[in-house]
């Protein structure tokens, strides 16, 4: 299957992308991984992207699209892929359509992870990270430490990252609504969108997604 995964920040896209890609036996292609891989390998695209990033500018769509094209042409993606973080706007979605059409392939589904805005704020703003080890993550509501502000594992101080503050989360949501959410309507016009709730246990969300994709695949 060829799938695009969309949803607001805090919807659990990264977790579900990894799990779904494994279950469906297709590569998980994330924008973040593409950038890191190209920059670390010092490819021409990586050097170009880094030049924009070092200058504090957004990487142009055409560079992101070129990276995605290169990755989708790798042998492990011949029979399918799951795109996570791309496309981010309608212009990228149109470019992806043109790219796929030139290769005589098409998307099978656009999986939309739906979650209420206040739940997104609660999920992200409640996170606390250990200053000694960033892999020690707690949550004020879902996995609170035994002692407030103290890491259960090493006793380090727990803190809230700047980009996890409520104001920042709401700004990120506004950017999502303005830039990324319109691609849902774009793909709905093509009959590709499958929407599921991203509330509940991780395993249940994965099961929900697989069932929805199976139904979508059966109608193709």
Features:
Rossmann fold, five-stranded parallel sheet, three-stranded antiparallel sheet, kinase
Q: What is this entry, summarized?
A:
With 220 residues, the chain is α/β, with parallel strands linked by helices.
Largest sheet: number of strands, sense, barrel closure: 5 strands, parallel
- What kind of oligomer do you see? single chain
Q: How many helices in DSSP terms?
A: 9
Strand content: 5-15%
Question: Any idea what the CATH superfamily is called?
Answer: P-loop containing nucleotide triphosphate hydrolases
Low-confidence stretches: none
Number of strands: 8
Strand order, biggest sheet? 2-3-1-4-8
State the order of secondary-structure elements, H for helix, E for strand: EHEHHHEHEHEEEHHEH
**CATH architecture descriptor name:** 3-Layer(aba) Sandwich
Give the secondary structure arrangement, pairings included.
Layout: E1 2-6, H1 13-24, E2 28-30, H2 31-40, H3 44-54, H4 61-72, E3 81-84, H5 90-102, E4 109-114, H6 117-125, E5 127-130, E6 137-139, E7 158-159, H7 166-180, H8 182-188, E8 193-197, H9 202-219
Parallel strand pairs: 1-3, 1-4, 2-3, 4-8
Antiparallel strand pairs: 5-6, 5-7
Helix pairs in contact: 1-9, 2-3, 2-4, 4-5, 6-7
């Amino acid at each position: 299957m060829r799938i695009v995964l969309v949803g607001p920040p805090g919807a659990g896209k990264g977790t579900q992308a990894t799990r779904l890609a494994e279950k469906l036996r297709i590569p998980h292609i994330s924008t973040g991984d593409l950038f890191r891989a190209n920059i670390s390998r010092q490819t021409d695209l990586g050097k170009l992207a880094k030049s924009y990033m070092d200058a504090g500018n957004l990487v142009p769509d055409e560079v992101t699209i070129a990276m995605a094209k290169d990755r989708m042409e790798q042998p492990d993606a011949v029979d399918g892929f799951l795109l996570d973080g791309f496309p981010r706007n309608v212009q990228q979605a149109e470019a992806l359509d043109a790219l796929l059409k030139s290769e005589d392939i098409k998307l099978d589904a656009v999986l939309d992870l739906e979650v209420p805005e206040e739940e997104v704020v609660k999920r992200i703003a409640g996170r606390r990270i250990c200053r000694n080890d960033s892999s020690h993550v707690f949550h004020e509501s879902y996995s609170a430490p035994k002692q407030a502000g103290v890491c259960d594992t090493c006793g380090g101080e727990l803190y809230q990252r700047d980009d996890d503050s409520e104001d920042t989360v709401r700004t990120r949501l506004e950017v999502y609504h303005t830039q990324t959410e319109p691609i849902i309507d774009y793909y709905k016009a093509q009959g590709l969108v499958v929407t599921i709730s991203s509330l509940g246990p991780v395993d249940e969300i994965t099961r929900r997604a697989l069932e929805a994709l199976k139904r979508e695949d059966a109608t193709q």
